[in-house]
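Troubleshooting log. The previous structure file for this entry was overwritten by mistake, so regenerating from the original sequence record. Sequence copied from the archived sheet and checked twice against the printout by T.R.
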Amino acid sequence: MNKKFIVAGFFLGVVASAISLVVLVVLISSGTTTSTAANQTLTGDIPTPGETSLNVYYPGTEKLAPDEMRVVACGTGQPSARPKQAASCWLVELGNGEKFLFDIGAGSHERIAAQMIPYDYLDKVFIGHLHVDHYGDLASFWLGGTTMNRLTPLRVWGPSGQKPEFGTKYALERLKEAYVWDIATRSGVIDSRGMELEINEFDYRGVNNIIYNENGVVIKSIPAIHGIDGAVSFILEWQGLKLAYSSDTFPNKWWTEHAKGADIAIHECFLPPTLLVEKQGFTVQEALVVGTLGHTSPQQFGKVMSETKPRLAVGYHFYNDFNTQPIVSEEVRKTYDGPLALATDYMVFNVAPDDIKIRMSAVNEEVWPSPAIKKKEAPQGNMSPPSDFINSGRKNYLLTLRKVWSDVNKKFGTAYKPVVV
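Regenerated output below.
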């Protein structure tokens, strides 16, 4: 891909991304990660439009080193929807070519698409629990992916529940049932290999339990505390690097034991109860229960990170605005003084053995799907035909239809003929 991918819309995205850098509280310099004051503006990391700078990540232009990991925040917000931040989703890319999605909450699919990665490479999704803000875009990614050239089955891992109906298998089997009309309309029309959904349910009670072990990548699950039983956190290990991802959880012993010493620890850092009352309209009781018992508050987040001491602590799952970020940062700093980033969507972390680099991703809002990486096959089977009633309403405009097909066949050297009922 041309590294000088310069269009007006692209650089509008760069400007927006650069502005977002102001809210960061991490400075990477001289190969080390160091924290800065919450109100300090970063210098040297904000390019002007048109400037050639590697301090902004341009999707699809950088090859990872064999021992390097890239983590992209595709959703850092809260359960309530907003344009600025999608719900929970993190893309992890490894130097061996493997790619993983951790959670795929509502609104995150477009952030994934903005990374311009062929969908056949995005075939592994790990769900921490079954709240809509953690898997609400799975259907869009799964079935929408068939129109974005995915020709590989989508593999999904998720926890069991206290009862079968609370588990991932139950939920996703019914997701298939809910979209049976969608599936039927695509069958016989497109290469349907990407419509396959592989469900891998594992025991939520497993402690440091290996749930994935392929191509040198090991992913383990640990129990999380969030609502009823059936929530988990994940730990990915590869080439001596360690990523820990909490999804949603109350502080717990499993995280502090098994996430200790992670290179990058991504943990929820919910809004403090005061902001839940003042900005989101919670009652005081709701704010205290939700903000400190259902989730991890900023001060609790700080305690967790003080115990586990990652190379870089990343807080997410809050509305990261100019008038919330300083408050969240101040709360975290009451209990933690180590390396810290407070994430927003499109933040990019390059993690290497001796360095962690943080940037914002440029965003091309006019992105198109990447080409298929496999040869497409002729559609298998037949689409369910419409009823006589629906067919009776057709206006075929045969001359126009034949002209369109003829022109397209001529352009691409094919000889297809329209089948009109």
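Residues 1-53 have pLDDT under 50 and may be disordered. Archived copy saved in two places this time.
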